[in-house]
Specification:
The structure is a homodimer. Chain A is built from 25 helices and 20 strands. Chain A is α+β, with helices and mostly antiparallel strands. Chains A, B: InterPro entries: Pep_S46, Peptidase_S1_PA, Peptidase_S1_PA_chymotrypsin.
Chain lengths: 683, 683
């Protein structure tokens, strides 16, 4: 009875539709529901196999292991940074693709780790014990997490990563243990113009014609890693209505936010983010128009900015949708009523919703200084980012693990160090642009008269200060390594201008971060956690947790949708690609494709859509058929899927996938990569 | 009794404060209230004198006539376009100022008209008779307006402009007759760095140190115009608490919008406008960073974009302010209740509020095509704008006056023609940037698959199409004149690529404009008018109409304010300017100022603030003392004044003014302009 009551409540609370909704953890997958709807049995063996063949990219992407020799399938846009960092003015792999003739020519991806989830352990009780009655909740929680992570990976952190994952907004804490590969090499990348054909205009749209795939290979001890538990590569077309599964790492969703939190996003954070992205987008567009070299070095950042803009714009539209907000109000009223009806639960929850309203009232005074002095400081300047890592890291690592900023705990230090030591190009022209942008916006948002502006800019203009900071030598990995290894003493003696700048301003950045955590994050996390525990007590694990860049499985079917009365078919084919090409960017095609036009099968499905519930971070995810074979790589959602941050609307939310069939066809007929085809298919 | 009841209702409806609120028409100024509060008698003579000495700039600025020889005081930012158009790569008057040694060196301001209001006549009955029962309300209204304007200026439209001004959102229509001067020459402009010291960071801020003034002279028959009714130039400092008056042309306010309309602005129009402005701002910033010449040619547009961004951002913050929205809800409920209580009024008003809610629901589907294909088409490209004027104007002028698009009625044709015939530079690099921006955003907002994108772009990219359009010869005024005079036949035979582009796309632009007028503007205007008539019936002219770029008078006092608990003083002085200067843009000073530092009086008030209720369009307005003498030129509002679009909050809303005392001091001691000083002061 109780169970049924809970289920009914969820149906009410999560309207309009439960169909295919959910990014489920592998230890709580709703196999019974899937069996009932699709007739497919997802048993423990199936789940274990798929978990073993799924991998997470450090930077926030997903992938499949697709050969016994460590070959990994992901999206082109997930390896784009690696492609760009290996390019030079004379060898532009973004434009021309990267197609090594043999394995020995594969190239290191600086800073990239690939991680395969091996184990999930519940540590909720340990965290709750450590935070019970703590005055500083965030500190107590982070200290407990740091200790658990350190213990779990002790003596094996060269090959493993231990990470506590917060689920149900603090309703559960689980220790995820990953097998980690840090020698990751680029194995294949097509030309950007086929991977991202249609560019920004087509991004998040469908019908679509993108061969958005790239391949890397995992290495161990300088040799291709052995990966016998890889997934099987299918070359069959997907079928309409076929049940499909997506295994990947959705980055973050906000489906459990309260109405007050959603309104704060809608009114404060989201408009400011869109404005910020739009202006730097304009700067980078014009910068790119200046010369082919500027276009090359800015492309990666511009792509990220445009992608982020379009995604946030879609989310913003959902936040403005009265139907979405109404459904949230209904769900919130339902949960509040249930909590009120239970005296014990009511006492434990207190006025958590009211506390979140108070947080949102406090937000406007703290948000901007926090963003411009701390969260967005440096605005993607590599030199600034190196300097901050060095200044903060050397100071933090001298403290006990539990006292550190969370990004410098023992379990994170290997990643920080890898990022500092790996060589990668720094582009001074681009550095100048982003530094000037950051400093100008800092002054604009904080005003010229603020203490923050006076400290960071002094009597300089953004341009003159940026010029001085660009004399930094931190582009050289040897210089970074020496400072890192020399520790605090070496850093304090350094006369590098960027190091000195960070040394002079870091106390102010840390102070505003502390204020933000005390006034915003801390109270919000504590109130969210109370609501999460209440929700957990009422609904249990019949619902799924918000996405947290950890492994999830979603189910669905191959299916088009109805866009304002017009049906959108589920599939596209190669001939449609050539019809859409105008010869002008971004609807131009690489020469190889124009020559191969007549050789390509007209029947192979190129891209397709499914009802799976995914979100950013799922890029590159294996899309699997009922047998668990890879039939494609998810690379996008439709425009309507962007609202997926806040709710799932199964009538229009669609995942966009490139087929392994099309990739195989292209590898054979466009690229002549028989070596790779053989490795993937055995043929 | 009835009168008192109405006054009480307004006090309730327009909370929080009536103090100093209002942009009053000269024929309905609340002299009694001013007398009661400030002890100053504003009689008909005072009003007539000030009206005669106040002038409107065609482009949307205000000014004072300050000498018997047609000398006009306005802001530097009101003559900036003229300064820029007269500059060349070798004579940069924006940077160095424009300081002719004698009158004969004054330079024509292309496209500028200056207009002095001479007469106001009520034409409400004529318009109401013409629109009563009309099926197409906008068409009927515009035809009646065109006829009235044509009649009124018949035979004298070389020297007069007749314009029907809509007041109280259609509650009143008045015919304004202006004496018009079309030969307007630049007489003096200081260096931009003193006019706009502190640049965008200080814009809308206070304390402030801007000598934001410029001077033009009106000419008639090639000689300086005689203006015996000029205002008197004061060189006295303003005093704290002194009553002051601002006479100028506030452009537009939205204080009578309904809650539904305000929410539409907040959720749809405003975020999209901020995003659009931010991106082109970024483009222009980077374009300007490319070379000094690019900086020079883009400066005017960038200034406008930044100014507009900051203004809209401030307005957006007010739209998000729960207190503002609550006051609007209260006012709306009050009016609705009063309408409901009166059967006749209720029948006449119908469900006008509900109709506006329906308009807002329809807006999302129409707004973007309307904006990108019609309202923002060309995005400030001069070539596009010329082509559209020629193509549309030659077609429209063949129709009866009442059937034309409103910008081509007989009363408007002289302005259209002046804009086409006046020579001014066209900058191809900048043209390319704005055309590419427009076409890219058109495609992005309408999607690549839309009919609009296919028609405007065809198989071109924004870049390739812009390159083709730039072959246009319309930069040459002789070419424009020939086409204009050749009429429709010449236009249709033209092979100018921009003309051909507009010919090919204009039907689609006109169609979406028609749709927008039928679905949005028409129903909204009709419903607004019903509410306006109801409001008028209830409250009468005890309240003031929304701003409409027509002459208004506001009253107030010299007074600082309290910013988040910190008092902001009302005055700044020259020494503060030198303290604030860092030597780095935008806090750098012109060399002349650095040399003159010790000569300048430390006691002369530089800038000051007042409680007057003004808005954009008031730039350059005479600020007058009780005697009606000019003591300054309004050039800005504080950040808090931006919410003035929607309400007036007297506790923080402030007008920012540069004193005539400081201008006189600078003309003497920085610029050695004894000739001008003598003309202004007689000494």
């Amino acid at each position: 009875m109780k169970r049924l009551a809970a289920a009914a409540a969820i149906a009410l609370a999560c309207s309009p539709a439960l169909a295919d909704e959910g990014m489920w953890t592998f230890d709580n997958f709703p196999s019974a529901a899937v069996k009932a709807k699709y007739g497919v049995s997802i048993d423990q063996k199936w789940l274990a196999k798929v978990q073993d063949g799924s991998a997470r990219f450090g930077g926030g992407c997903s992938s499949s292991i697709v050969s016994p020799d460590g070959l990994v399938l992901t999206n082109h846009h997930c390896v784009r940074t690696c492609v760009q960092l290996n390019s030079t003015a004379s060898a532009n792999y973004i434009k021309d693709g990267f197609m090594p003739a043999k394995r020995e020519d594969e190239k290191l991806c600086p800073g990239v780790s690939v991680e395969i989830l091996k184990d999930i352990t519940d540590v909720t009780a340990r965290i709750n014990a450590a935070t019970a009655g703590a005055k500083d909740y965030i500190k107590a929680r982070d200290a407990a997490i740091a200790a658990i992570e350190k213990d779990a990976c002790k003596g094996r952190d060269d090959k493993y990563r231990c990470q506590v994952t917060t689920l149900y907004q603090g309703g559960q804490f689980k220790l995820y243990t990953y097998r980690k590969y840090t020698d990751v090499r680029l194995a294949f990348a097509p030309e950007e113009q086929i991977a991202f054909f249609g560019g920004d205009p087509d991004n998040f749209n469908f019908p679509r014609y993108n061969l958005d795939f790239g391949m890397v290979r995992l290495y161990e001890d300088g040799k291709p890693a052995k990966t016998p538990n890889h997934l099987k590569w299918s070359t069959e077309n997907p079928k309409l209505g076929e049940p499909v599964f997506v295994s990947g790492n959705p980055g973050s969703t906000s489906r459990l936010l309260t109405v007050a939190e959603l309104e704060g996003l809608r009114d404060i954070s989201m408009p400011d983010t869109l404005i910020m992205l739009s202006e730097i987008r304009g700067v980078l567009e014009q910068f790119s128009a200046e010369s082919p070299e500027h276009e090359r070095i800015a492309k990666n950042l511009l792509f990220g900015v445009e992608n982020s803009f379009k995604g946030n714009y879609g989310r913003f539209q959902t936040l403005l949708d009265p139907a979405m907000m109404a459904s949230k109000r209904t769900a919130e009223a339902d949960l509040k009523a249930k909590v009120k009806a239970d005296a014990k639960l009511s006492a434990a929850t207190g006025d958590a919703w009211g506390e979140l309203e108070a947080v949102e009232r406090a937000r406007p005074t703290v948000e901007k200084p926090y963003i411009w002095l701390e969260a967005r400081a440096g605005f993607r300047s590599d030199l600034f980012s190196y300097a901050r890592s060095i200044v903060r890291g050397t100071a933090e690592r001298d403290k006990p693990n539990s006292e550190r900023l969370r990004e410098f705990t023992d379990s994170r230090l290997p990643i920080v160090q890898k990022n500092l030591f790996d060589a990668r190009p720094v582009y001074p022209d681009l550095e100048k642009v982003v530094l000037v942008y950051w400093l100008t916006k800092l002054r604009e948002n904080l005003t010229a008269d603020s203490e923050g502006t006076k400290l960071f800019l002094g009597k300089e203009s953004p341009e003159s200060l940026a010029d001085k900071l660009l004399a930094s030598k931190l582009a050289d990995p040897a210089v970074r390594k020496a400072l890192w290894q020399g520790g605090k003493a070496a850093v304090e003696k350094s006369d590098d201008p960027m190091i000195r700048f960070v040394l002079a301003t870091d106390a102010a950045s840390r102070a505003i971060r502390k204020t933000y955590e005390d006034k915003i994050d801390g109270p919000a996390d504590r109130a969210d956690e109370k609501i999460a525990k209440a929700r957990f007590a009422v609904y249990g694990t019949a619902t799924y947790p918000d996405a947290t860049l950890s492994l999830r499985l979603s189910y669905g079917a191959v299916e088009g949708w109805n866009e304002k009365g017009k049906p959108v078919p589920a599939f596209t084919y190669f001939p449609g690609l050539f019809d859409r090409a105008t010869g002008k960017f971004p609807f131009d095609l690489p020469a190889r494709w124009l020559s191969a036009k007549d050789k390509l099968s007209t029947k192979t499905v190129f891209d397709f859509v499914t009802t799976n519930d995914i979100i950013g971070g799922n890029s590159g995810s294996p899309v699997l058929n009922a047998k668990g074979d890879v039939i494609g790589a998810a690379f996008d959602g439709n425009i309507e899927s962007l609202g997926g941050d806040y709710w799932y609307d199964g009538s229009v939310n669609r995942t966009v996938v490139v087929t392994t069939a099309a990739i195989t066809e292209a590898l054979k007929k466009v690229y002549g990569q028989d070596r790779l085809v053989k490795e993937l298919t055995g043929k």
